[in-house]
Amino acid sequence: MRLGVATIALLAVAGGAHAADPVRGQELYALCQACHTLNGEHGLGPSLQGIIGRRAGAVEGFRYSPAMRRSEVVWNATTLDRFMEDSQAVVRGNRMPFDAIADARDRADIVAYLERAK
Length: 118
Prior knowledge:
- By secondary structure, the chain is mostly helical.
- It has a single domain, classed as Cytochrome c-like domain (Cytochrome Bc1 Complex, Chain D, domain 2, Orthogonal Bundle).
- It has helices at about 1-15, 20-30, 30-35, 65-70, 75-85, 85-90, 105-115.
- α2 packs across α7 and α5 (about 75-85) crosses α7.
- The protein starts with a helix and ends with a helix.
């Protein structure tokens, strides 16, 4: 059985898999901080405090686009990853002026940071 686990671990490393790094994600979050806080106060965008498990467009006191308010997206690792990759594909018509984060590792690290930041 040990050989099986070692083989799987080796394949994961060879395949480029990595564990998401919340410390690196915090550094990368600087891309988001221009608009989003994690302290409950809104900036140009809504606060991302407690975003994991929250329905999109649901934070009180922020003026969301009609598309975001109507969406039925619930933020989790998958939906956040997809949104950072292509926000219009996830919520067509949202008004967030955002260039995608193309690198999957960068997105995973940011999500890991947001999961910890709560």
